[in-house]
């Protein structure tokens, strides 16, 4: 494996804020279900299910904070070695104000669709789109996007 040119990590403040707010929502939903249970059983199930889902999501956000994205000269990989995409697989970068992208991040449009996958607050992949950002620092995500644009320009010039 080649040495990373740049590493994108999660901001600890955003990580904890997101996890606490999401888990707090889960606790609030469960508390509402316990204190004032709705008469309809389906409504109680929805409250408890949504509360449990929010607690699980808060935990996933907290866990995902230990992960990072590495840019090498040939690919974007996860800290665990999972290939997100090779540079040859990228068509373009979308980071405009109206682009469907993560907060403080950008979207890569890929040549071929890939299976859905997701690391909360760091990246998501759906079809031909790979979203990077969320709880990452805005400046770091901008630097990564700029470096990717430079590498793609070099690739296209060759």
Structural account:
There is one protein chain. By secondary structure, the chain is an alpha+beta fold. The chain folds into 2 domains: 10-64; 72-157, no CATH class. The protein is built from 3 helices and 7 strands, in the order βααββββββα. It has a 4-stranded antiparallel sheet, covered by helices on one side. Helix 1 (12-35) runs antiparallel to helix 2 (41-64). The longest helix is centred in the first third of the chain and has 24 residues, at 12-35. The protein is elongated, with a radius of gyration of 19 Å. The mean pLDDT is 89. The chain crosses the membrane at residues 16-34, 40-59. Keywords: Membrane, Transmembrane, Transmembrane helix. This is PH domain-containing protein.
Name a few traits of the molecule.
158 residues, single chain, 2 domains, 7 strands, alpha+beta, transmembrane
Q: Average pLDDT, to the nearest integer?
A: 89
User: Could you tell me how far the N terminus lies from the C terminus, measured between alpha carbons in angstroms?
Assistant: 23 Å
* Helix and strand run: EHHEEEEEEH
Sheet having the most strands: 4 strands, antiparallel
Global shape:
elongated
Low-confidence stretches: none
Helices, strands, pairings?
Elements: E1 6-9, H1 12-35, H2 41-64, E2 68-71, E3 75-78, E4 83-86, E5 90-94, E6 106-119, E7 123-132, H3 138-157
Antiparallel strand pairs: 1-2, 2-3, 3-4, 5-6, 6-7
Helix pairs in contact: 1-2
């Amino acid at each position: 494996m080649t040495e990373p040119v740049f590493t994108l990590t999660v901001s600890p403040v955003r990580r904890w804020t997101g996890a606490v707010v999401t888990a707090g929502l889960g606790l609030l939903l469960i508390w509402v279900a316990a204190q004032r249970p709705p008469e309809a059983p389906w409504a109680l199930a929805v409250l408890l299910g949504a509360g449990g889902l929010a607690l699980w999501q808060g935990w996933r956000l907290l866990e995902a904070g230990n992960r990072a994205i590495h840019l090498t000269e040939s690919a974007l990989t996860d800290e665990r070695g999972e290939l997100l995409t090779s540079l040859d697989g990228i068509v373009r970068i979308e980071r405009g104000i109206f682009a469907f992208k993560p907060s403080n991040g950008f979207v890569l449009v890929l040549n071929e669709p890939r299976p859905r996958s997701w690391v909360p607050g760091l990246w998501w992949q759906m079809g031909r789109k790979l979203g990077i950002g969320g709880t990452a620092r805005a400046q770091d995500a901008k630097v990564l996007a700029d470096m990717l644009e430079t590498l793609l320009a070099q690739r296209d010039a060759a």
